[in-house]
Amino acid sequence: MKTAKIIALYGDNDEKRVSPLQEKAVPSEYKDARSPYRRDYARLIHSPAFRRLQGKTQLFPGVESDFFRNRLTHSLEVAQIAEGIALQLNDQDQYFKKNKIDIDLVQLAALAHDLGHPPFGHNGEYALDDCMRDFGGFEGNAQTLRILSRLEKREGGEDSQVGLNLTYRSLAAVLKYDTKIPLKDSKRKPREKPVKGYYSSEADLVANVKKAVLQGHKASKFKVLECQIMDLADDIAYSTYDLEDALKAGFLTPLEVLHLANTPSFLEKVTPKVEKGVGGPVSPAEVREIYIETFGSVVRDKLQSVDLSKPLDMVSRISEIYSTSKALSCNGRLRTSFTSQLVAEFMSGVSAVYNGKIPALSEIVLARPTRIKVEALKHLAYEALIMSPRLKLVEYRGRDIVKGIFKAIDSRERAGHLLLPDDWRETYMEQQGDEVARKRLICDFVAGMTDRYAVEFYSRLSSVDNGLSFFKPM
């Protein structure tokens, strides 16, 4: 009986670049020992778009505390988790033992995954999408692909419009959604959120990426395994490290989570989102049990030293429970231990389903109980924090700032394009008569701003105070 032929994980077409002609000739005496994917990794690290991530908010504005994560530190953590997942699969999976997942490629995908986030995160994303609904929309993942493949500049590629000129497999690793975003609002559902996908301007590029990676095969869904690993690592980081920031900020304590776990209205909000992430039915009771097990254990562990057989009065007992709950916010060692255990638990639930026809599309899966827990904790942070009045204040402010800047630059009556830097203005003038291209250019410029730069830019336009704090009482 013949054994099935084992197909290699990477092919020659994967290493081809968008524009081979843009590659600068290397002197014969210099031999670059790096792989094509390592070179892509280096190009990303040295790019301005990557540096700007340090000025973009993850959950809490960095001006509030140096402890809180920003998009850059979040991306570094996602890259570390993604690397760990890839190494684990290379060590334990039979196929990947002989056909190693490229670690540089996985890290590149993780480090690049948030490049397209505009100032003020998803609030900025919604604002720009509103401005662009009749001109191709706006979405963070689509913007990431655009930055890497078109907007970033490198030596020898000033006018090439190929961005960092990455390999096709590297671009595939950041292509999370295989859907072209409609150019016109009439093609979208009413009041629809930003469409997950890629812009019409990158449609030809995506077709070439898929052609290179699929090597003549057809696939109904296109998401390479490096992208899946990045996506999973991002979910793990969201479900643990955003939670850690919330605990440190005092927005949440274990007692408050236990209260939410026993609040039916909260469970009714969270459970459908958990079901969507899991891809199957999940009961409110399952979600409740996860919250109680995860945060109830923190209280129980700390109370083990208390002799409950002694007649403690009610005030003393309540004080012990309160102090134990608060310790997770105040005690850095305890908090780090808590999140580290969660990350290790989640990573241990990862496995792969080998695709013998197209190994690049092998499925990276998380065991169902683990996936439910990841989704439950991820949406806990969202519902309890992002929907809170203090963060809602930031949300409305962020949307107003982003829309205000866009509309000011887009104003024909006031020659708003003169607000653009010289190189951007020059490109804008070259696009006379192409309204879609001009709108996209303004969108690209605003999306690339850091939070602080957007606030300063808007302040100069409106002459308003640029206070950044949201912890102060309203």
From TrEMBL:
Keywords per UniProt: Hydrolase
Bilayer-spanning residue ranges: none
Keyword Hydrolase appears in the UniProt entry: yes
One GO MF term: dGTPase activity
Superkingdom field: Bacteria
CDD domains in the cross-refs: HDc (cd00077)
BP-aspect Gene Ontology terms: dGTP catabolic process
SMART domains according to UniProt: HDc (SM00471)
Location of the HD domain: 71-239
Family that this chain belongs to: Belongs to the dGTPase family. Type 2 subfamily.
Listed HAMAP family: dGTPase_type2
Designated name of the protein: Deoxyguanosinetriphosphate triphosphohydrolase-like protein
Species in which this protein is naturally found: Ralstonia solanacearum K60
